[in-house]
Amino acid sequence: MTKPSFFDLTISDLADELVAAGHKKFAATQLFEWVYDRKILDIESWTNVSKKCREWLSETYSFDLPKVIFHAKSYDGTRKFLVQFEDKQTVETVVIPARNRLTQCISSQVGCAIGCTFCHTGTQGLKRHLKPGEITGQFMSVSLWLRENVHEEERLTNIVYMGQGEPLHNYENVKKATINFLEQKGLGLSQRKITLSTSGLVPKIKMLHDFPPVNIAISLHSAKNDTRTELMPINKAYDLQRLFDAIKSIPLKAHRRITYEYLLIAGVNDTKSDVEALNKLLDKRESKINLIPFNEYPGSNYKKPSNDQVLWFMDQMIKKGYTCTIRATKGEDILAACGQLKTQYEKLNLWDQSVEIRKIENSDAQA
Q1: Is residue 291 part of a domain?
Q2: Which is nearest to 138 in space by CA: 201, 226, 54, 79?
Q3: Among 200, 269, 320, 332, which residue is least crowded by beta carbons within 10 Å?
């Protein structure tokens, strides 16, 4: 019989389990510090934990992490990892370097049910939700990989739920994982270092008052219902009126704004009328617009706009009083950019010759 994963537990869950098994409640803090803070998974190394407790842990829980089975490095320093879970399902997760931070793009599902027409992940459908420990496990596995293969001081500083899947479709598991990301006795990330992105699952947006107060990003991509429905079938069920009614219920801390992700696609949503529609829809005081030039992938029906068109669109929004930025496209040569992730690598001949490919261990995944 498979043991439950230690990584599915919050510190509160663990404390309850310890007490129920006759151990001291404070051991939960010690265990989180060993596992998450120090990232030492050898139970016998936990010198301040009683032998009896260590034996119980070993018998009761699995401390296995997702396996890194492939790694690719882009010319710009972005790294893409294929990680495999116990049932052999896989997801991709991406590490993006920037000044003073190293951000991991985390997946929340194997595949995705939303079916956005511009997204590579959506072409495979939804296979299953990830468990809390499989979500935090991506962070743990990649952290250990970086420590062992890059530098012992290499540290992930930020996470964004912008990998495979719709995070709010897997609400409870993502919530539990986020609690562990924020736990000060464990991974200890701050609320401002975590961003939750959603395509607009209205019933779950209305539940965000009960979610840890992290940054919120909305995948908008059009301020016109017909265009948004073409790009995002979820708009049929939750159109812009219903979406923005729900957004009003999101509790925002002082000086926080909602980020609206806007994927610019040539000839689809990059015109003057799109600028006007966006200006009419958004509140300048509570909105930040992040423009994302479309990242093409094999088989995509859409095209990337010119750099001049992207700059023009940003300039128009800034002139109207918005904070508007352009997301730098990183990892495009290894299909690691926004919207390009899938559960297995594409054929390597699609990639630039400068890409470093490393197979970490044998896998059933197709290269």
Answers
A1: yes
A2: 79
A3: 320
Q: Is residue 250 part of a domain?
A: yes
Residue 178 shares a structural domain with residue 257 = yes
Q: Which residues does the annotation mark as catalytic?
A: 92, 338
Q: Which of 60, 79, 99 is the last residue of a domain?
A: 60
177-219 per-position pLDDT tens digit: 999 999 999 999 999 999 999 999 999 999 999 999 999 999 9
Q: How confident is the model over 269-312, as pLDDT tens digits? A: 999 999 999 999 999 999 999 999 998 877 788 999 999 999 99
With respect to residue 367, please indicate whether it lies within any of the assigned structural domains.
no
3-state secondary structure 299-360: CCCCCCCCHHHHHHHHHHHHHCCCEEEECCCCCHHHCCCCCCCCCCCCCHHHCCCCCEEEEC
Amino acid identity of residue 291, one-letter, is L
Q: What is the CATH number of the domain that holds 301?
A: 3.20.20.70
Same structural domain, 125 and 211: yes
Burial 127-145 (b: 16+ CB within 10 A, else e): bebbbbbbbbbbbbbbbeb
Give the domain range for residue 47.
6-60
Give the rounded distance of the alpha carbon of 145 from its chain centre.
Answer: 18
Instruction: Please check whether residue 365 is in contact with residue 84, taking contact to mean a CB–CB distance below 8 angstroms.
Output: yes
Is 365 inside any structural domain? no
Residue 29 maps to which CATH number?
1.10.150.530
In a 3-state reduction of DSSP, which class is residue 208? helix
